[in-house]
Write a structure and sequence with these properties.
5-stranded mixed sheet, single chain, alpha+beta, 12 helices, two-stranded antiparallel ribbon
Length: 460
């Protein structure tokens, strides 16, 4: 049992441990265990901190993550250059009036790119609170603080962000090329075996090894500087694209409160629908099964033929109850989503639609189960409406996964005139979509066509 001594006695007492000690040069006693802040003995390894392997793994992981951020920022920086040129051309041609016509489109491109950058930065760190939608009219945009901040970010990201992103692309390539140079330099053409920065060509093994050392230097630069470069590239976006101090965040709070209330209402409506389906369908069938089985049991002795007929009716009622229970369970969460994914589930809906329907689904990665279920029910309700009310000859369902969003469109060539207040189920669709902070837009002029568009976040 671990022991230590009472003060002044030299006798051990059970229950605690005495730290091991060694005698250091000069006669002083050096404890082998470090003392933790709470006064207990901590192992010497813990006092020394992480080992070299753990430190190297952390450094490499941080560098790889930073390179991913830099490469992603390079993509948005390249788009920033294009948007900056578009805005410059719009401003120059605005003097003669032509640019005023293109200004709303240019401003929408600016706002869309800023939103894309917010989403990108949110994937690599804390989410950025988006401001209220800025205006797209030139006169209002010039006085809008959000637009001015986005313009300042655009200039910085199209210059410094582009340069840092380019380095994030080139440095790993240079590091790999030069580090492996001694392995293949003899196989390369005489004029193609120079270093990645153009010095050379190498004529001897000594020069080839020096190129390999240069590759190690590039690797050290990537490991040491990549995280700082990624932070520098992201800093303007995190500072300028967030909602400013003048933004009325109470509106966003009110919006979230309303959507959550709508989600609760939709949930309560769904529970009532399931309860009605069970009560009016499966429960009544099971009650009839019970009654028929009781009657058959009483008749089995005196009228076997009649009892046989009742048992057949009871079996038929049980099968119908089972079918209705399966229908209700599928309406809660269709198992086809888990088995075949969203594309397969929507293909099944289109195949059973009374109106010929084609599907085009391109979603590279699976979304959250609740999002896929919402998309499934949106399409199911939309196709039901098309079959019942539109008089359409054909319909189409298009789904795309882009930038962490699920974009869904249902179109038909029917008579149009769809109205949310007409009992067509569109109100329920809007509530389901709002529960995920998604958006829904409906275009259905009299005479058609009708287009229903839904935008959902993939991860909610």
């Amino acid at each position: 049992m671990p022991t230590h001594q009472h003060p002044g006695t030299g006798k051990p007492r059970a229950g605690t441990a005495a730290p091991a000690a060694t005698v250091a040069p000069g006669g002083t006693v050096a404890p082998d265990a470090a003392v933790a802040p709470d006064g207990t003995a901590a192992p010497a390894d813990a006092a020394r901190g992480p080992g070299p392997k753990e430190t190297a793994a952390r450094t490499a992981s941080a560098a790889l993550s930073a390179l991913g951020q830099l490469i992603g920022g390079f993509g948005t920086a390249f788009l920033a250059v294009a948007v900056l040129l578009l805005l410059a051309v719009t401003a120059v041609t605005g003097v003669v009036g032509v640019g005023l016509l293109a200004a709303p489109a240019a401003l929408r491109a600016l706002h869309a790119l800023a939103g894309r950058e917010r989403d990108r930065l949110g994937r690599w760190g804390p989410a950025i609170a988006a401001p209220a939608p800025p205006p797209t009219r030139p006169r209002s945009a010039l006085a809008d603080p959000t637009t001015r901040r986005e313009l300042r970010w655009l200039v910085r990201h199209a210059t410094l962000g582009l340069l840092l992103g380019l380095l994030g692309v080139l440095l790993p390539v240079m590091a790999v090329r030069d580090t492996t140079f001694p392995l293949w330099w003899r196989l390369a053409p005489a004029d193609a075996n120079s270093t990645s920065v153009g010095f050379g060509p190498a004529q001897s093994w000594a020069e080839a090894i020096s190129v390999g050392l240069l590759g190690l230097a590039w690797t050290a630069i990537v490991l040491g500087l990549a995280p700082g470069m990624a932070r520098l590239q992201a800093r303007p976006g995190r500072r300028l694209l967030t909602a400013g101090p003048d933004a009325d965040l109470s509106l966003r709070v009110a919006e979230l409160t309303a959507t959550r209330a709508a989600a609760l209402d939709a949930h309560a409506t769904e529970l009532r629908r399931i309860e009605r389906s069970l009560h009016d369908g499966a429960q009544n069938r099971l009650v009839s099964v019970t009654v028929l089985l009781g009657a058959a049991r009483r008749m089995v002795a005196r009228d076997p033929a009649g009892a046989e007929e009742l048992l057949e009716r009871a079996q038929s009622a049980a099968e119908q109850a089972l079918a209705e229970l399966r229908t209700v369970s599928r309406s809660i969460l269709p198992p086809v989503l888990a088995d075949r994914g969203l594309a397969g589930a929507l293909s099944g809906l289109a195949a059973h639609c009374a109106v010929p329907c084609r599907t085009d689904v391109d979603v590279p990665a699976r979304c959250a189960a609740s999002v896929e279920a919402t998309a499934y029910f949106v399409v199911a309700e939309a196709l039901t409406n098309i079959a019942k009310h539109s008089g359409a000859r054909q319909a189409a369902v298009t789904v795309r996964g882009e930038g962490g969003r699920l974009l869904l469109r249902v179109t038909d060539d029917g008579r149009g005139g769809a109205d949310e207040n007409g009992g067509s189920g569109l109100t329920g669709i809007r509530r389901r979509v709002a529960a995920h902070d998604g958006t829904l837009s409906l275009s259905s002029p009299p005479g058609g066509p009708t287009t229903l568009e839904v935008n959902l976040p993939c991860g909610s």
